[in-house]
Amino acid sequence: MDVGERIQELAGRVVELRDAYYRGAPVVADAEYDAVEDELRELIAANPELAPDPNPLEQVGAPTVLHAPVRHSRPMLSLEKATRPEQVEAFFGRFPGQSVVVMPKLDGLSLALVYENGQLARAVTRGDGTTGDDVTPLVRALTDGVPARLTIPAMGDDARRSDSSGQGDGSAQGDSSAQGDGSAQGDGSGQGEAPGRVEVRGEAVMLRSTFAAYNAAHPDKPLINPRNAAAGTLRAKDPATVAERRLQFLAFDLLSEGDATDADLERALQTMGFTVAGMRHCDDAASAQAVISTIEAQRNDLDYDLDGAVLRLADRGAFAAAGTRSSSPRGALAYKFAAEEKTTVLADVVWDVGKTGKIAPVAWLEPVFVGGTTVTRATLANQEVIRARDIKIGDTVLVRRAGDVIPFVAGVLDASKRTGAERDIVPPSVCPSCEQPLTEQGNSRELFCTNVSCPAQTVRRLIHWASRAAADIDAIGGVWIERLADAGILEHPSDFYHLTAEGLLEFDRIGEVSAARMIDSIDASRQVGLRRALIGLAIPMASEGTAAKLCRAGFGSLEELVDAGVDGLVAVEDIGPKVAASLVEHLSRLRPELERLRAAGVSLDVREEDLPPVVAAGAPLAGKTVVVTGAISDPRSGEKVARPAFQRLCEKAGATIASSVSASTDFLITGADVGAAKLAKAEKLGVTVVDQAEIWQQLQAADLLTH
Ligand SMILES: NC(=O)c1ccc[n+]([C@@H]2O[C@H](COP(=O)([O-])OP(=O)(O)OC[C@H]3O[C@@H](n4cnc5c(N)ncnc54)[C@H](O)[C@@H]3O)[C@@H](O)[C@H]2O)c1
Ligand SMILES: [Zn+2]
Question: What are the catalytic residues (predicted)?
């Protein structure tokens, strides 16, 4: 095939793929679509005379059927893409002296919100860039972060809620998203009245938490990914049919007439009442690159999908003056991150027996690079998910590895690729390990092996006992545990404590050094204590949090938990009757094992570190509820400090630790690299943001840092 033909073919493919995608039924993952675009772009760049006409790369979106077409005041464009630092440098080189904002590139769909005299008049999708669909009723009903009327600050409105301690002032720590506070109202607030027409553009996304909650509640009709879910929501005919699919709007662009508004994009948007996904001002390519890296590193902690970072001139006038190309503004650049979704072939499904006897389907995949690693296994959850997503062995499936670390098979994008050779995924009727019949539980029909002496479960439980969060026997890996279990030497956790170096040396391929290391590691684990022993016993429904709470509640040993009975356990805050019943049932069953552990010198008593901290007199954080975020390090040594360790110090200083910011939080204590969303939330709720340096100082002054 010659170059001209290849170009025609690729151009045709781009049109076809876009068409499917914008109709809501993509047939390939974004990364694969992008690869087609990239190849086409390169061929055209090398052979400009062979450019197709029309050139799809110069068009935006796809000409889909519009239900209520509305013409945009100015085209809604795509963005120029970059993947290399040189491209970021070149961008700065084009605009010497201009400040640039760097922000997450959200993976949702863009919306234009038109305000007339301060009131929301219309919400319109991007469409083909020139004309979009009017989706106002859906946006009003379902989208958070879209004010019905704009807040235009009047004169003197800058007497903001002042933080009692004054600590708020020093708290922005180089994060420009919070620094606009004092100055925003200073210059642009004279106008008490909204300019005639204001258009705010931004991204409507489905939060990952909303997406997960929806799929958990509707296993029979799952959404494939948050971006597709958001787009589908705004295609609904009636808001009532998609009521549980709430969206969030995050603003990134502002067009307004009469310019009384702030020249700085972020301040202008926030002043009007919009949420911005965190913009950082950068004056050179190196600092922009650093922010891009931070955004990418924090990607998994955020509640929304993002597929890159956007760089854009911070000054609204400069951005407008830079003008546009056929399909993208010159004053912006999208830096793309590694894909979190890819397609690959589902080679087989294996049913895996877990430590609690749950039999879960595991997808064996043709290796695929996704979410930063090569993935060969992914979870398929349960048979109900397989049925609802209509997945077969041999299918080309979409694999998602985002937010959480366990890759997931999200579904089949293009069922038309099927050849007929695909096979149904058949759940086993007996346990793959012990061959005992299985039981089915719950709406998602999860399968369980209830045989207490099932060999696969035994190995899983032993591996779990040895894991880091439990006894932490780090010198013995899973392979060894399996060998020892197969040999009949290991069955219960207590058996670890009867292993000897001589016994281990009878096995092939083991030297004296490693045998001694294994025994040392087992020895050290005798100090496991109540909390970690409870985790290690893998009681169904009892989480790591449950174990921590029981220690705090004053239980001194595992035996005391059994003796307390269900009534004694439900008396503990946040311990429900089901968890309590499960604890009592399983710990009673494990009584003989607890005795064996004790006899082997294993401590099942609460450890000092798991007790509620003794609050020192004059504790600096007494009565305060705090949230800790970001990377914490000890200023005395510069050493990284694990968040739980720092939280414990705060508790010793009298604080109550909360996991997320709410109206009852007193302080948000920030370490390095704090996500802008957290800061924005704190600010919105009037929570004082305090830098870790200040807390370290207080801890030191209260003599709490002695160790
Ligand atoms: N899977 C498929 O078959 C298929 C087909 C077509 C397109 N796609 C995907 O759709 C996307 C391409 O669409 P595009 O070229 O129009 O979009 P783009 O990737 O060029 O980005 C432009 C869009 O980014 C969004 N955006 C998010 N955060 C932003 C911010 N902070 N500032 C400015 N814009 C921001 C806006 O909605 C804007 O319209 C790609 O991700 C592509 O992979 C997939
Ligand atoms: Zn079994």
Answer: 105
